[in-house]
Amino acid sequence: MGLFSRKHGSRHANGDQHNQNNGDVRLPANTKRANGNPAQNATFPNVPLPKAPDPNLDPAGYLRSIYAVRERSRLVLDKAKRNQLRHFTVDMSKFADTANYVVAIIKRDYDPDYSSIPPHGRWQHFEVGGRPRVDQLMATWPSAVDNMERTRRLIDLFLVSVLLDAGAGTKWQYKSKESGKVYKRSEGLAVASLEMFKIGLFSSRPDLTCQVDSGGLKKLTTEKMAKGLQVTVDNPIDGLEGRTNLLIRLGDALLNQHIFGPEARPGNMLDYLLSHPSTEVAAVPIVPLPTLWTTLMDGLSAIWPATRTQVDGIPLGDAWPCGSMPSHPTHPWENIVPFHKLTQWMTYSLMVPMQKLANVHFVGTELLTGLPEYRNGGLLVDTGLLTLKPEDAKRGLEQYQMNATRQGQPSVEVVPLFTADDDVIVEWRALTVGFLDMLLDEVNLLLGLRGAGKLTLAQMLEAGTWKGGREIAEESSLYEGWESPGPPAWDGPEPIDATTWNLRFAVELEALTAPSSSPLQEKRRASAANVAEVLQRTRISSSSGAPMSAHPLRAHPVQTGVERSMSGSFYSAQTNAGRVASSRG
């Protein structure tokens, strides 16, 4: 497979491959735990990026490319700036409130060391509660397992974990077998997938438990997955069968030896990328982002539903017609907006171990967009920037009432309900992509960051909008009397004060009155006060004149119809229209 191809060496008796002298590129022996790329201070040659496919010649190729996501969403954003959308009213006077809220969250948790903010990715979910589980996992591997093989193993783990990372429902939780702590949502799925990985559930080789391969995935059953995820009648998870079938289909996709090698492992894509003709070899390997993107889009195309939007008979994946887009009688592709949310989440996540351990430098990462999911999108609604128009709110509430009559469907919070392909949801997601770009510029300006010191989009997602979207939903719930999910479980030392929980408004206010015992506590209380002030100001001055929690489509921690439409539980979402393919992919 070229200069960086993997040569298969001997196996130790303990099952770990000895590949110190297997022809892999030489890397530092010590693995450092860091937030950024170890090669970030190196000087790199100019590596040109490939051009986007011409939509007039290859519309399907264009809409499947990463280039199309931002370009198509920008057309919807342009209409939003003129308040000419079909489904949402836009109050640009609230944009400053949204930016100030994000800045307050970032300052509270990272001021003044903004360079320490990690990029958005699955790695952080594994560390829920302050426990460095990935580092602890790698510490159990013999020193003979070099950084290249460590990277392969983490790619194995991260890819499966990302595919399992979709809405689990409001009732499911996971109790760690190692710590006894209980986790929910994305973090719960991360810990569960890690512990299943460690016992070899995804491997076909009993002597090599910490890997994922085609044989192991194709032996999965719903019963095995239910046991691994601790699913019972009293602890149900949404889409158990769909999750299982998705991993089985991944097993089929891994049979592509050109990308995944004879072992049929996700981690072997590292060797494919390093030997790719577009990869430059300098002080470190330099991989164009579109090369990784195409590898994931083409290599995993078999796992996505073929029933989604198509052009010229080619399924596009997470791409949908949008009424706010231009239409052309002979170019029907022009009204389609692609998002490819799950592939982007996978790209963000897989880059991290390749950067940290294999010193891979990716060029063109700015092509990735903000993720159009309910936390980021809900933030825009909760701060009053977007308000659902009355006729759509009425239609969504009628659909909610119909859905609430179905057995087992949630009826806790009354919110408008739409299917994943509804024009309301598609427009909302396109706006999320566009406004996240605008927020990045404004957030860097408000933080006073310039040049190389600016936050990347991945850093703002991690420290600001994704976290802020979750928190503002929890904060809003208190004003309506809803039960909050409470603080996340904590595996490490006790936090210095309540603000380190990054919790809801009430906890932040409580922290303001805590006795001062250190400059750090005083700083955190000041930051918490800033968050509370911005939140209260935004709530009082919402565009409808009502409390912010009254906004339709509010992103609430209770996973109701709109949240599932936005996050797009890939496996399927139960709605009044029946089980529908979701928007996550």
TrEMBL record:
Residues 32-44, 566-577 have a biased composition (Polar residues). Residues 1-55, 560-585 are annotated as: Disordered. InterPro entries: DUF1688. This is DUF1688-domain-containing protein. Residues 1-11 have a biased composition (Basic residues). It comes from Friedmanniomyces endolithicus. It comes from the Eukaryota. Pfam families: DUF1688.
